[in-house]
Amino acid sequence: xxxxxxxxxxxxxxxxxxxxxxxEKSESSALNKSIQHNTTSFTTNADFKKAQSYxxxxxxxxxxxxxxxxxxxxxxxxxxxxYCHFFRGISFFEKKLFKKxxxxxxxxxxxxxxxxxxKAKLGSIALESYLFEKALSYYKEVEKIPKLHSxxxxxxHIKDNIGICYLHLQKYEKAKxxxxxxxxxxxxxxxxxxxxxxYGNLATLYYDLYKDNLxxxxxxxxxxxAKTTNDFSTLQTTTENMAVVEENRKDYKKALQYRKEYEQxxxxxxxxxxIYATAKAEEKIAVEKxxxxxxxxxxxxxxxxxxxxxxLYSAIILxxxxxxxxxxxxxxxxxxxxxxxxxxxxxxxxxxxxxxxxIVSHDLRSSxxxxxxxxxxxxxxxxxxxxxxxxxxxxxxxxxxxxAYTLLDNLLNWALLQTDQTFFRMTNxxxxxxxxxxxxxxxxxxxxKEISFENTVPKNExxxxxxxxxxxxxxNLIDNAIKFSHSKDQIRIYTKNDATNFCHLIVEDTGIGMDxxxxxxxxxxxxxxxxxxxxxxxxxxxxxxxxxxxxKKNNGxxxxxSELGKGTKMIISLPxxxx
Length: 579
Known about the structure:
By secondary structure, the chain is of the alpha+beta class. Among the domains are: 277-418; 426-575, 2-Layer Sandwich (Heat Shock Protein 90). The protein has helices spanning 3-6, 16-24, 28-38, 46-56, 60-73, 78-94, 98-106, 115-128, 132-143, 155-168, 172-189, 192-208, 212-226, 232-248, 252-316, 322-384, 388-418, 431-440, 443-449, 467-483, 516-523, 542-553, and strands spanning 426-430, 452-455, 462-466, 490-497, 502-509, 557-562, 568-575. The strands form two sheets. The protein has a five-stranded mixed β-sheet. A hairpin with a 4-residue loop joins strand 4 and strand 5.
């Protein structure tokens, strides 16, 4: 391999941000416990207590709002001020506003109990900014801390970042022991994404030293591991690395294959980033609403206090306070007019948002449906030409599109339901035919996953419900049953009748099941986003919330019976006739 070509290589494993942020998440639990223990003396400060609660729940914008209020009003204690700046520094760091985060950390005194954490974060900020010498100086300070006093810091991650700094500074002999230790540690921890990063960093070191026989197997290991994940960024990085390796080895055929695969992961990553951007926009709107609510509540408290003062002084000196009472009355009228005007503006904005939500959902569903149709045609064509490998890739692509289409379909129906644009036409329905019609669309997926399906609903069973909303309910429940089932598992749909005027339709699977806490969370009316109990299963909980809303609109009820490891029963109770 020519030296000139190798010196131009840039391996993306040294791109620090996503790897670094992933490392630091594991430290938050111990850190929060330490903070809670050391701030008990500040529990009487209501604003600080709220700020701490928001901080523990990763509500960074609300944390910044409350800590600003503490610092501007009652903060005189050095320890309280330090914790406020620490909360703000972490909040800005998580929002990736690194300069502001650094400014907050530098305001913290030298006596702060969590000063090692501050140094570690300053090192991370320098590393994010590619200031490797600066980052190294911070990390070396943290490395010297006795193990007894570093319980809130993962020292293995600090050492790993030291190795990365040395690698960037081309001090390979110093970097090598740190990177080797990182690989050993991540292999023990069995964290796939972090292990991929460790392999990549060590491989880059060997590659820069022209030890191809050591570097290339590590790049191959990283690539093979990445194929077992759903992390598009990691897949993109490892694939590009393999393309560069093969280009340098003059195997241009393999390099081209890797380049094509890289383009596929780039497209997937772009789609994922769009969804993430939408979620961040929605989160920002929610925070703005919460802040407006806080301002409104504070305005109302001020009005109430003013009214109490007015009545008190009016009782003591009626004539003297007559002018003051008139002043407060006019001020109140003016404030009420402002609040009323603000309410009208908010209502108008919400109406516009709802319309935009519906339009965007329609457009997105149409686009994704077009991709879905195109994939089906491509798959049929490629099957006839027996290009199995490309066919597998397209099958995988089709599965991703199907999942995205289901999400967007649920999103559209949720938007229509929330804006009262959904029309419910209640009629007597043959339940067996409706179930068969919905289940037919999942025939290929069931066969691919080798899941047996059985519909034992009596053919003469009738219910009084809206047909289209019932199909949406069944689609989501069958989709969930497939998602949470293993290969060779079984899904059954059947009914039970009792003395009431309700038919109990049951969707039962023999999949992974759920614990009591998860079941109770799913049954709460206020739950929109479900907690992920399994990292390899993607789900927002929107489909389940949509099901519950539509069942309620159909005058029915919903319940769940499940046991972890023994499957789940989703029970829909719908009226047999008009109620």
